[in-house]
Amino acid sequence: MGLIEVKNITKRFDDKIVLDNISLSIDEGDIFGLIGPNGAGKSTLIKIMTGLWDSNDGEVIIDGYNIKEEPLKIKEKIGLVPQEIALFDNISAYDNLEFFGYLYGLKGKELKKRIKEVLELIGLEEKREEKVEKFSGGMKRRLNIACAILHQPRILIMDEPTVGIDPQSRNLIFEFIKKINREKSTTVIYTSHYMEEVEMLCNNIFIIDLVQEVAYGSKKTIKSMISNNDRILLEVLDYKGEMLLAIKSLTGINECIEEKGLIKLLVDKNNFRLEPLLKVIEKHNGKVKSINFEEPSLEEVFLALTGKDLRD
Amino acid sequence: MVKLLRLTYINLKLSMKDMGNYLIMFIAPLVLTLAINFISSKGGYVVDTSLAFDIKDKGSYGKELLQKMNINENVFFNEEEKALELLHKNEVVAVYQIPEDFTEKIQQGEKPNIKAFRREEGNATLAFELRLEEEINNKIKREILIKEGVIDNKDELLKYATKAQVKVGDSKLDKEFLLAMTMILYFIILSSSSIGERIINMKRQNILSRAMSTANRGYEILGSLCLSILTFQVIVNLAVIFISKLIIGFSIPSFSIVLTNIILASLFSITFTMFLTRIFEDQGAVSFGSVIFSIVSLFLSLVASEASSFPQVPLIIKNLGKLSPFYWLMDSVENLKLFPNALVLFLMILALFSGGNYKLKSFIYRT
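Above: the input entities. Below: the structure tokens describing the complete assembly.
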């Protein structure tokens, strides 16, 4: 049983279904990706998981507690980074952190220590006394995250934390997520409609579209759902046409084409073996300069599964 | 309970850092109290240096009257031309001529005629003239009472006047104290607009929804916010009354009455805001509603409390004033009583609390 169990969650607004029978399980220490286009239902699911909204059917169990029965027990363990910036504009970064620290039950020296730690972690220690209204979008996003980790939650839920920010702040946020996951074993739920972010950060993924599950599992499992083929890019020096024909005849090679000095192979991941390929190249006096394996991207997976681009 | 107090403390700390709060809840009532007191202590009418007087009175009453009214400058005796010259030079706005038979007529119980020369029509001298008339009327009254043998000398009139007071409390209160309390209570009711603004801003800035994701109940979050506003208002308004007392020098007849009325006014203001916020959920509408309510409430309560002075105002308007919190607050302060005023106000607060009570969760996500 995972740290977080979402079972058959359905949410309706009047007659409109906004989440349809969603189930998933997240293990402790995982970085879990929840991806889907805008309006797919990601934020709704997050709101139900954090007790902000009630579901019509199904249940959410976190660390053995049911969110409907003991919401405060669960909320103690959660830090939520909302999609929208949730900060007081007219006061300083420090005052914002102090306010949310109190909401998380911190006080005195402990609170001061935690504020100092998180300000260092997000790189805003020099801006601590500056009013938030003077901050850039990226700085606000970082402070938005800092407010959610003051109480060192076991579970950090980040709802589209990188929307509209500069690459530098984005990289800082990625580094921060990896760090707290590595050093404090914090379980992270990361929602985004940027596939490359989720692909880079997450181990397990839930893809949602039109309020329903599209795919769910490890990255590898999800990618294998759309194809049994992998792509290999070979850069070989001094090769001849006969070599290409020999490669094509190998077991597990479905396609072999030469393009701009590169040999592109489409291989069956179940039957392909690398060793015979290298032997053929050597036999034809070719010299391998580089070899790259390419899996389909999550973007391609989403396209294959839903028939549309994620940003449509 | 401890959690509620801790959250109240942090909300109060934030309130104290917001200079806007001080403007409406501290600076405005203090400045207005001091300014109005300054103006009214000058008599409320055009000061004597902008008026001139020519006394032709053969008796002593004319001179005594001006002395009683603290008028010492530009007073001439049978020098009409000099007085009028000041008017021509635009150094005064009016010249009053006290006639020869001024003392004589008063002694006979008749009203003397005072001639007034003005540069133009206007009401700049109206307050002065009303007071002049009041003084003359009092003087005539005394003369009649002495003549009829009701009193032996003019000082006895004061005894009768005191005995005739219906409102026993009146003589206990300084008018400066009443002015300060009026300003404080008015601004507390008016401040409901800024409370509404704060709650709606917190919703708009997603602070409330974020707060709901923490391990605190909705009523703890909203309750601590309201308690912090109440505490802030009580502290700053007590400061206003004590600073005014220090500067103006009035006496505070009952601290408990002051404190109770400030608390009740503040509670009314907060629950009224919650009520408006529940109905409108729009910052502009809540602010507009609060301001209009404060003004109408003040006006109606004045009409209701001074009903005898406004015979032409319909009875229904006078009675409507009794629905205003201001009427009960000021009545409590003026008469130094808590019953039934505090009870009536408490019931009003309870009604607004029931009408304005909402679940924070549904307030946050209502669109």
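Note for the figure: Residues 167-184 of chain A form the longest helix (18 residues).
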